[in-house]
Amino acid sequence: MLEIKNLHATVDGREILKGLDLTVPAGEVHAIMGPNGSGKSTLSYVLAGKEDYEVTDGTITWKGENLLDMDPEERAAAGVFLAFQYPMEIPGVATMTFLRSAVNAVRKARGQEEFSTPDFLRIVKEKAKLLKIDMAMLRRPLNVGFSGGEKKRNEILQMSLLEPDLCILDETDSGLDIDALRIVSEGVNALRSPERSMLVITHYQRLLNYIVPDRVHVLSKGRVARSGGPELALELEKSGYADYGQDEASAA
Amino acid sequence: MELPVQQFRTKAEQDLLDLYERSADALPGSAAIAALRQSAIRTYAGLGLPHRRVEAWKYTDLRGRIDEIPPLLAEADVQVGESELEAALGKAVLTLPAYRIVLAAGEFRGDLSDVGALRDEGVELGSLAQMLEQPPAWLTASLESGAARDDNVVIALNSALMTGGVGVRLPEGLTLQKPIHLIHLDAPGRPGSIYTRNVLVAEEGASATLFESFGTLGGQGIQRNAVTTVSLGAKSAVHHIKLQREAVETIHLNVWAADVGAEARYNGFQVSMGAALARNEVHVRFDGAGGATDISGATLARGSQHCDTTLVVEHNVPACESRELFKLVLNEEARGVFQGKIVVAKDAQKTDGKQMSQALLLSERAEFDSKPELEIYADDVVCGHGATSGQIDEELLFYLRARGLPEAEARALLIQAFVGEVFEALDDESIGDALAAVSAEWLGTPMEQAGP
Q: Does the N terminus or the C terminus of chain B have fewer Cβ atoms within 10 A?
């Protein structure tokens, strides 16, 4: 279970999160919606442990432990996974090399044995097939020259390989056409399980037709302004975010 | 001997003259070679050791760096077997499929070299020391051509003091399927100077890879001067590769000078990791139209290492192409220097020259000096240069850490990715992989062996 209490966070001295409370029980999928600048992406980076995001107040407890005490790699080992809105391109590192390094690092940290090469290849092939990822793509440098859809599918492949139990999807639907959206959503849905919590961050309701959440939270000005069931997303689709205002910075 | 007057000589500068005086009688070679040595030492005497006010040595103060001149190591009786070779170079490099030639403290070691196999392929080769006694015409021509770049102190000292090396001639049309691996070793224990000269002549249409590796047997206070001249006939191709892993105290001076004939290709590739001070010069001169060269490499330096790569490409004839790409990884107080000079003569129209150097600074105390020099006298040319220096990208680092890679491992992967580009471009994949593995070892992580 993820428990966030009174979270305040600043970036470059500017306060973005201003007392955010959120609880995600094990096995539930929660959607985080909200206007631009409401703090959605900031929340995802704070959860993953990005250094330039400074937490000034509040707590984040993950499975009873203080998440804020952990380095990003320790969070990954503890089961936290952030699917990036803009996955990084790294020329010179083959995607497969990267996947293997990541999986083995996490397994090592969890006290599990590293995969042998044939085992690892078999597992990657299996999971890649589900996401319609060509093995040739995995021989290319990480995300270099990948289309938007390929990058996002690659993120979900990493998610399935690292077996996290807190999946944070930061605007995974951005830049996806309808076919790619379906493939990615199917990949995410295949990972839903009673042990796994998910935080699906999105600006649009569209993604939630495919990944149906248990709860929907609307972020506004760095706090949760309203929470409800999946019907809340539909309501927002009609009325828009007008009632929730824009953060001064992004409205400008 | 009458020497040109230099107003002031440092002790080391004088010691070099004395070393020559003491050694001259015992140095190998015919009367003509002795005359060449004489002329070379006079050249040196006029120049002295280079320092920062000499433009080509702006960032590398050799005169300030050398206090003592150790004796020649030519007579050192060096014990070398497979285990010493492996310790000096690492298994990945030593086991590359290649014709092996070993120079131990500069001495040609026929007993450790694949001389017979190379001769069976039609290659003419031998110990330089022996060849100098009755030099064949191709050797004399190549030595004089090298010496002709007579404002070059490293070559002048080498011509004066060379004790050994190897001479290789590839006859017309011969293609060697395996590289020639020329292994340079030092000698354990006592300080010494090693002067080696290697000559490679590729006749028309011949092609081969010459891989020179420099390893240590535990040398202390070694001063190495190694010169290789390469003469490329029309339509010939030579791939010239270097791995430098000298002892940490060594002063390593190395010049490659290639004369490239019409439609010939000369590719150079250098990986520098060892030595306290390394100066790597590559001079390429196009003598026939339609030639091409690609000089690239990687420098990995830490501690107080100083590594200087200086390239000079002379486009004397039309329609030649040159490419240069060097990557430097500099940690702690290491200093990396890249100087790239491209000269395009008046008649060398349609020249296409490009140059790039990129440094990754892992410490705030590391330093990178880059100096491009373009001298263009023709008007229909495409020439470009660029240099960058930067630190590890924090965004990339976070991405890798968020995927569970510990910080040190993530950094190593990013550094490897930075230099990886040059290794990938190497035509000979097995050498490229071995060199990438050696550099990965330097970076402190095991190389990912398996691919899908």
A: N
